[in-house]
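User: Hey, my collaborator sent me this sequence without any context and asked if I could get a structure. I don't really work with proteins. Can you help?
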Amino acid sequence: MSFREKSLWVQLVATVGVWAFYFYSLRERLGGTFNRSSYADRSLSLFIAGVVLLIVVAIVLALLARIGSTAAERRVRDEREALAGLRAFKWAYVFGALLLVWVGWQAWSTGDQLSTLFDAQPSDGGVRMSFLPVMQWVPNSFVAAANHLLFCAVLTEVFRYALNIVLIRRLR
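Assistant: No problem. I've predicted the 3D structure and written it out in structure-token form, which is a compact way to encode the shape of the chain:
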């Protein structure tokens, strides 16, 4: 196994491990608190912990991969590895764009449902329902949207690492 392939495995394991922990913790700890004001604060602290954990895990695993390879192996990068990296990046870009289209469609359809809910006239011809109760959800909605975008970015990177590994092995 080449040093580049070991490095890709390190990145894949670190990314999957840390972000799976982040999204699982986000769901478990914050699942029932979406309408509370602490949702944004609690998810931000969890995100910062996830980034710090990712940095530490990636450094430790990269050092282990570096120890297991020679200096000559680390310097050499053949054309097949470069070609595999370019192909994986191209297909990951397409995959990420499709994920973002899906998230955009989900946001549009959810927003359409919310506007129908909060702009509806009461059936008895009374006073129009207020939009003010939704205003407390606005910061939380942005945090939820940011987490959806982060999820798309993580899936795209995992797809790129995995495809790069497959292409490196296939091009040998």
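In plain terms: The two ends are 11 Å apart (CA to CA). You can pass these tokens on to your collaborator as they are.
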